[in-house]
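Quick board copy: two proteins, each given as sequence then tokens.
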Amino acid sequence: MIIHESLIALNLQSKNKVEIIETLARKARKLGRIRNVKGYMQAVFAREELFSTAIGYGIAIPHGKSSFVEVPFIAFARSQEEFLWDSRSEHRVRLIFLIGVPEEQANDLHLKILANISRGLMNDSYRERLLQATSVVKIVAIFSEMGL
């Protein structure tokens, strides 16, 4: 399963994308999805340098294709309050989806995950339910409905 209950952080107080990405990457490391947090984060931030992964609708989808990823994953965080994702974008975010894909599976799987997340999140109902969900079990069920 690409999402797991232990990869979900609800009601984060941080408004710092580096802290949030690191928090989620550490969860992925603890679950055995990545073998090196720092190496994986370098791939994510290299991608962030190209352009912001804040896509509007209160959503950011940072992602990294890396040899440090052992098993593909999506980690999810929900911030208690919206915040500016980065200075290059006016988008404020509250829902963060961190994607990790092994380098050798990068093209097909990476694009499929991004497409499924994007398609699902264009639906107001999914976004609202992700904002209102009170447990990680409910979040996993929403992800399942989205085809993830």
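And the next:
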Amino acid sequence: MTAPHRALVVIDAQQEYFEGLLPVQHPDRDASIARIDDAIQAAEQAGIPVVLVQHELPAEAPVFAAGSPTWQNHPVVAAHEARASHRVTKQSSSVFAGTDLEQWLRAQGIDTITLVGYMTNNCVLASAAAAEPLGFAVEVLSDATGAIDLANEAGRASAQQVHETLMALLHSNWAAVTDTAGWTAALHAGEALSKSDLPTSAAQGRSAV
């Protein structure tokens, strides 16, 4: 297996998820932002490009309002802004929709994107799925992402349920899922991460019932 050409993509690590209307509930948001910082530092030390993505809506929007305090990156991530390899502003869930990210990645010779940030149940999931038809391999760091509690007319699920279910779903098809320590070790070794597949995950799921 050839060594991957990675970029670390930090998705929406913004104050909206800490002090706004969408506080991350699982994993613990203070722990997850610390792991995001660890991943950025590991990428910088390994010469891996770091892309910072921010969701931005009009100034009158209730969340991610352009220029508002909760639109700002979390201070831990903001400390890396000046050194970021590329910065992206988006209006959709996927980091690719309406942005120049695909073109930038291809210009850098990137074939693998590592996703960290928020939320597992929205932008991380959408970005991983969107990468598939574009031909990018995807990695997701389970302890450097996070989800929220959900309840609506279709049902309800705790943030822990949401996050753990989506990590299993992603690893079954769209992404190699590991934690920050495992990813950092793979960086140092110049190795790709392995992921499962749908037939294997289905077989293991049946045997676990």
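Board note added afterward: Strands lie at 6-11, 50-55, 86-90, 112-118, 137-146, 150-152, 155-157, 176-178.
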